[in-house]
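Go through this chain.

——
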Amino acid sequence: METNTHTTTPAAAAALLAAPRTQEAFGTVRSALKVYGALGAAALVTVVAVAISGHTVNTFMWVRAVLLPVVAMLLHRMTVSASRGSKRAYERVSALTVIMPVAVIGVDLIPGVCPLWYAAMQVVCMVPVVRAAFVVRGAVLRGVFTKGSPASRR
């Protein structure tokens, strides 16, 4: 009688993670998150400049401008961890890259929360995150971390 059990070896998991397509996909995600971090930092500098010039900058804008570059660093760190085989990190990056653009843009659309220029700047900041979401949820990386794959047991 033949059994259809899947045995996973550390070597198989390492080979799957080291595959060129897998590492290229992770590289794309890391690059997108670096761009997001740079855009977030530019948004923070813009908020500082607007405040220094005497224009109104509300608390929401300050908090968002400070937090989003920090989130970019955390997402990048999770992506590096996922590229080394952490399924938990992969799942977090996969979820956050989908939820963040919806949440950020959705909140910015609430009338009176922030000025139009700030909302537009936040939309631009989310473009690389959307790119990362498509790559993270694409076939290459999804295949690495699907149930039963070698990396999914890590």
